[in-house]
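Chain A, query sequence.
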Amino acid sequence: MRRRPNPDSEANIRRIDTKARAKKQTHGFQVHFLRGTQMVTKMFSDSIYGGKEAARRAARKFRRTVVRRLPQRRFVGFK
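Chain A, predicted structure.
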């Protein structure tokens, strides 16, 4: 069975919410990129950034700066 995507997620930004019964709670947004062998990932926690929307804004700002620095995606067809 496929997992339902989180409606708070968007391109290159995942919403992370642990279940309420977990020992440690994690709530925030994770920005992730993979270009060839280069991987970039960063977590924006709700508690550190002062709430869900502030963490989302920080994640979007980080994504914009990283997109400018990373090389363009290359789409290679199958042979």
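Residues 34 and 40 are 7 Å apart (CA to CA). The chain has a mean pLDDT of 87.
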